[in-house]
Amino acid sequence: EAAVTQSPRNKVTVTGGNVTLSCRQTNSHNYMYWYRQDTGHGLRLIHYSYGAGNLQIGDVPDGYKATRTTQEDFFLLLELASPSQTSLYFCASSGGTGYYEQYFGPGTRLTVL
Amino acid sequence: GDSVTQTKGPVTLSEGTSLTVNCSYETKQYPTLFWYVQYPGEGPQLLFKVPKANEKGSNRGFEATYDKGTTSFHLQKASVQESDSAVYYCVLDASSGSWQLIFGSGTQLTVMP
Protein backbone atom coordinates (compact mmCIF):
# COMPACT_ATOMS: atom_id res chain seq x y z
CA GLU A 1 0.00 0.00 0.00
CA ALA A 2 1.33 3.41 -0.99
CA ALA A 3 2.14 5.58 2.00
CA VAL A 4 2.57 9.34 2.26
CA THR A 5 2.71 10.95 5.69
CA GLN A 6 2.70 14.62 6.62
CA SER A 7 3.58 16.55 9.75
CA PRO A 8 2.34 18.46 11.53
CA ARG A 9 -1.34 17.83 10.85
CA ASN A 10 -2.30 21.23 12.16
CA LYS A 11 -0.25 24.38 12.58
CA VAL A 12 -1.07 27.88 13.75
CA THR A 13 1.42 30.69 13.30
CA VAL A 14 1.45 34.47 13.17
CA THR A 15 2.04 36.80 10.26
CA GLY A 16 5.76 36.94 9.53
CA GLY A 17 6.48 33.63 11.20
CA ASN A 18 8.53 30.77 9.78
CA VAL A 19 6.86 27.45 9.07
CA THR A 20 8.17 24.14 7.76
CA LEU A 21 5.81 21.44 6.57
CA SER A 22 7.22 17.93 6.24
CA CYS A 23 6.33 15.06 3.95
CA ARG A 24 7.70 11.53 3.75
CA GLN A 25 6.82 8.82 1.25
CA THR A 26 7.72 5.15 1.42
CA ASN A 27 6.63 4.32 -2.13
CA SER A 28 10.10 4.57 -3.68
CA HIS A 29 8.62 7.20 -6.01
CA ASN A 30 10.79 9.68 -7.83
CA TYR A 31 8.22 12.49 -7.99
CA MET A 32 6.87 14.43 -5.01
CA TYR A 33 4.52 17.40 -4.96
CA TRP A 34 3.17 20.12 -2.71
CA TYR A 35 -0.36 21.41 -3.32
CA ARG A 36 -2.61 23.84 -1.56
CA GLN A 37 -6.37 23.34 -1.42
CA ASP A 38 -8.75 26.26 -1.15
CA THR A 39 -12.50 26.42 -1.56
CA GLY A 40 -13.41 27.20 -5.15
CA HIS A 41 -9.90 26.49 -6.47
CA GLY A 42 -9.46 22.77 -6.13
CA LEU A 43 -5.82 21.78 -5.70
CA ARG A 44 -3.09 24.04 -6.98
CA LEU A 45 0.51 22.93 -7.44
CA ILE A 46 3.10 24.90 -5.48
CA HIS A 47 6.36 23.00 -6.12
CA TYR A 48 7.42 19.55 -7.18
CA SER A 49 10.57 17.49 -7.43
CA TYR A 50 11.76 14.49 -9.40
CA GLY A 51 14.53 13.46 -7.08
CA ALA A 52 16.78 14.39 -4.20
CA GLY A 53 18.21 17.87 -4.70
CA ASN A 54 15.81 18.69 -7.54
CA LEU A 55 13.13 21.37 -7.36
CA GLN A 56 10.62 22.52 -9.96
CA ILE A 57 8.28 25.47 -9.78
CA GLY A 58 4.56 24.85 -9.87
CA ASP A 59 1.64 27.13 -10.62
CA VAL A 60 1.47 29.12 -7.35
CA PRO A 61 5.07 29.29 -6.01
CA ASP A 62 5.15 32.84 -4.65
CA GLY A 63 5.97 32.96 -0.94
CA TYR A 64 7.03 29.30 -0.80
CA LYS A 65 10.33 27.48 -0.90
CA ALA A 66 10.80 23.74 -1.00
CA THR A 67 13.62 21.30 -0.53
CA ARG A 68 13.96 17.61 -1.34
CA THR A 69 16.63 16.17 0.91
CA THR A 70 16.24 12.48 0.06
CA GLN A 71 14.06 10.40 -2.18
CA GLU A 72 11.67 10.02 0.75
CA ASP A 73 11.55 13.53 2.22
CA PHE A 74 10.15 16.75 0.79
CA PHE A 75 9.74 19.97 2.80
CA LEU A 76 7.73 23.12 2.19
CA LEU A 77 9.05 26.33 3.76
CA LEU A 78 7.14 29.52 4.45
CA GLU A 79 9.73 32.03 5.62
CA LEU A 80 7.47 35.05 6.12
CA ALA A 81 4.01 33.61 6.49
CA SER A 82 1.03 35.72 5.49
CA PRO A 83 -2.73 35.26 6.14
CA SER A 84 -3.19 34.52 2.42
CA GLN A 85 -1.24 31.30 3.00
CA THR A 86 -3.88 29.97 5.37
CA SER A 87 -4.90 26.78 3.61
CA LEU A 88 -4.94 22.99 3.59
CA TYR A 89 -1.65 21.65 2.23
CA PHE A 90 -1.26 18.25 0.61
CA CYS A 91 1.85 16.34 -0.30
CA ALA A 92 1.77 13.64 -2.96
CA SER A 93 4.10 11.22 -4.70
CA SER A 94 4.07 9.39 -8.01
CA GLY A 95 6.22 7.08 -10.04
CA GLY A 96 6.23 9.48 -12.99
CA THR A 97 4.33 12.32 -14.60
CA GLY A 98 1.35 12.45 -16.94
CA TYR A 99 -0.85 9.38 -16.61
CA TYR A 100 0.79 8.13 -13.40
CA GLU A 101 -1.42 8.00 -10.31
CA GLN A 102 -0.54 10.43 -7.54
CA TYR A 103 -0.76 9.24 -3.94
CA PHE A 104 -1.71 11.90 -1.43
CA GLY A 105 -0.97 12.37 2.23
CA PRO A 106 -3.64 13.29 4.80
CA GLY A 107 -2.94 17.03 4.65
CA THR A 108 -1.70 19.78 6.97
CA ARG A 109 -4.05 22.57 7.95
CA LEU A 110 -2.13 25.82 8.33
CA THR A 111 -3.61 28.94 9.87
CA VAL A 112 -1.71 32.23 9.70
CA LEU A 113 -3.11 34.80 12.11
CA GLY B 1 -3.71 27.17 -21.23
CA ASP B 2 -5.09 23.96 -19.86
CA SER B 3 -8.23 24.14 -17.74
CA VAL B 4 -10.98 22.00 -16.28
CA THR B 5 -14.53 23.15 -15.50
CA GLN B 6 -16.89 20.96 -13.51
CA THR B 7 -20.31 21.11 -11.86
CA LYS B 8 -20.35 23.60 -9.03
CA GLY B 9 -21.54 22.07 -5.82
CA PRO B 10 -22.73 21.28 -3.39
CA VAL B 11 -24.89 18.49 -4.75
CA THR B 12 -27.31 16.68 -2.42
CA LEU B 13 -28.99 13.45 -3.47
CA SER B 14 -31.04 10.71 -1.84
CA GLU B 15 -29.73 7.15 -1.73
CA GLY B 16 -30.61 5.19 -4.83
CA THR B 17 -30.84 8.18 -7.16
CA SER B 18 -28.54 8.78 -10.10
CA LEU B 19 -25.56 11.12 -10.24
CA THR B 20 -24.02 13.15 -13.03
CA VAL B 21 -21.13 15.52 -12.45
CA ASN B 22 -20.33 17.47 -15.57
CA CYS B 23 -16.73 18.06 -16.57
CA SER B 24 -15.37 19.90 -19.59
CA TYR B 25 -11.75 20.57 -20.40
CA GLU B 26 -9.50 22.69 -22.58
CA THR B 27 -6.08 21.60 -23.75
CA LYS B 28 -3.95 21.68 -26.87
CA GLN B 29 -2.72 18.12 -26.57
CA TYR B 30 -4.13 14.65 -25.98
CA PRO B 31 -4.44 14.38 -22.22
CA THR B 32 -5.09 11.56 -19.85
CA LEU B 33 -8.27 12.31 -17.92
CA PHE B 34 -8.84 11.35 -14.31
CA TRP B 35 -11.50 11.42 -11.64
CA TYR B 36 -10.14 11.73 -8.10
CA VAL B 37 -12.29 11.43 -4.95
CA GLN B 38 -11.64 12.97 -1.57
CA TYR B 39 -13.38 11.63 1.53
CA PRO B 40 -13.69 13.79 4.65
CA GLY B 41 -10.41 14.18 6.49
CA GLU B 42 -8.36 12.46 3.80
CA GLY B 43 -6.29 13.38 0.80
CA PRO B 44 -7.60 12.83 -2.72
CA GLN B 45 -7.32 9.34 -4.20
CA LEU B 46 -7.64 8.10 -7.73
CA LEU B 47 -11.10 6.85 -8.69
CA PHE B 48 -10.12 5.93 -12.24
CA LYS B 49 -8.32 7.30 -15.29
CA VAL B 50 -8.76 7.11 -19.05
CA PRO B 51 -5.69 7.72 -21.22
CA LYS B 52 -7.35 7.45 -24.62
CA ALA B 53 -10.14 9.34 -26.33
CA ASN B 54 -13.49 7.62 -26.79
CA GLU B 55 -12.77 5.09 -24.09
CA LYS B 56 -14.63 4.59 -20.82
CA GLY B 57 -13.25 4.30 -17.33
CA SER B 58 -15.05 2.87 -14.34
CA ASN B 59 -14.63 1.93 -10.70
CA ARG B 60 -16.98 1.30 -7.72
CA GLY B 61 -20.02 1.80 -9.96
CA PHE B 62 -18.82 5.19 -11.25
CA GLU B 63 -18.04 5.64 -14.94
CA ALA B 64 -17.04 8.33 -17.42
CA THR B 65 -16.35 8.41 -21.15
CA TYR B 66 -13.50 10.49 -22.59
CA ASP B 67 -15.29 12.40 -25.37
CA LYS B 68 -12.70 14.21 -27.47
CA GLY B 69 -15.35 15.66 -29.78
CA THR B 70 -17.17 17.54 -27.05
CA THR B 71 -14.12 17.78 -24.73
CA SER B 72 -16.17 16.31 -21.91
CA PHE B 73 -15.61 13.66 -19.23
CA HIS B 74 -18.83 13.53 -17.21
CA LEU B 75 -18.92 11.33 -14.11
CA GLN B 76 -22.00 9.14 -13.69
CA LYS B 77 -23.37 6.62 -11.25
CA ALA B 78 -26.73 4.95 -11.57
CA SER B 79 -27.51 4.56 -7.86
CA VAL B 80 -25.57 6.47 -5.21
CA GLN B 81 -24.99 5.33 -1.64
CA GLU B 82 -24.44 7.31 1.53
CA SER B 83 -20.80 6.14 1.45
CA ASP B 84 -20.33 8.01 -1.84
CA SER B 85 -20.50 11.33 0.00
CA ALA B 86 -17.23 13.03 -0.89
CA VAL B 87 -15.65 15.69 -3.10
CA TYR B 88 -15.06 14.65 -6.70
CA TYR B 89 -12.36 16.21 -8.86
CA CYS B 90 -12.07 16.09 -12.63
CA VAL B 91 -8.37 16.22 -13.56
CA LEU B 92 -6.20 16.29 -16.66
CA ASP B 93 -2.46 16.16 -17.21
CA ALA B 94 -1.10 19.44 -18.49
CA SER B 95 -0.07 19.83 -22.12
CA SER B 96 3.04 21.77 -21.18
CA GLY B 97 6.37 20.01 -20.81
CA SER B 98 5.85 19.29 -17.13
CA TRP B 99 2.78 17.07 -17.68
CA GLN B 100 1.55 17.90 -14.21
CA LEU B 101 -2.04 17.50 -13.07
CA ILE B 102 -4.64 20.26 -13.45
CA PHE B 103 -7.51 19.89 -10.99
CA GLY B 104 -11.03 21.17 -11.39
CA SER B 105 -12.55 23.08 -8.49
CA GLY B 106 -14.23 19.98 -7.08
CA THR B 107 -17.88 18.99 -6.58
CA GLN B 108 -19.08 18.26 -3.06
CA LEU B 109 -21.59 15.39 -3.03
CA THR B 110 -23.75 14.58 -0.04
CA VAL B 111 -25.97 11.51 -0.18
CA MET B 112 -28.85 11.39 2.29
CA PRO B 113 -30.06 8.01 3.63
Give an overview of the whole structure:
The complex is a heterodimer of chains A (113) and B (113). With 113 residues, chain A is mainly beta. Helices cover 0% and strands 51% of the residues of chain A. Chain A is built from no helices and 11 strands. Chain A has strands spanning 4-7, 10-13, 19-25, 31-38, 42-49, 56-57, 65-68, 73-78, 87-94, 103-104, 108-112. The model of chain A has no long low-confidence stretch (mean pLDDT 95). Chain B is an all-beta fold and 113 residues long. In chain B, strands 2, 5, 6, 10, 11 and 12 form a 6-stranded mixed beta sheet that branches. Chain B is globular, with a radius of gyration of 14 Å. The model of chain B has no long low-confidence stretch (mean pLDDT 93). Classes of the chains: A mainly beta (113), B mainly beta (113). The A-B interface holds A 4, 33, 40-45, 48, 56, 58, 90, 92, 97-99, 101-107 and B 32, 41-46, 49, 51, 89, 93, 98-101, 103-106.
Helical stretch count of chain B? 0
Tally of extended strands of chain B?
12
Largest sheet geometry of chain B: 6 strands, mixed
Q: Specify the helix fraction band of chain A.
A: under 10%
Please indicate the percent range of residues of chain B in DSSP E strands (runs of 2 or more): over 45%
Class from secondary-structure proportions of chain B: mainly beta
Shape of chain B: globular
Beta-strand content estimate of chain A: over 45%
Helix-strand makeup class of chain A: mainly beta
Kindly summarize this structure in a few lines:
With about 110 residues, chain A is mostly beta strands. Helices cover about 0% and strands about 50% of the residues of chain A. Chain B is about 0% helix and about 50% strand.
What structural keywords apply?
heterodimer; A: 113 residues; mainly beta; 4-stranded antiparallel β-sheet; B: mainly beta; 6-stranded mixed β-sheet
Map the helices and strands:
The complex is a heterodimer of chains A (113) and B (113).
Chain A: E1 4-7, E2 10-13, E3 19-25, E4 31-38, E5 42-49, E6 56-57, E7 65-68, E8 73-78, E9 87-94, E10 103-104, E11 108-112
Parallel strand pairs in A: 2-11
Antiparallel strand pairs in A: 1-3, 3-8, 4-5, 4-9, 5-6, 7-8, 9-10, 9-11
Chain B: E1 3-6, E2 11-14, E3 19-21, E4 23-26, E5 33-38, E6 45-50, E7 56-59, E8 62-65, E9 75-77, E10 86-93, E11 101-103, E12 107-112
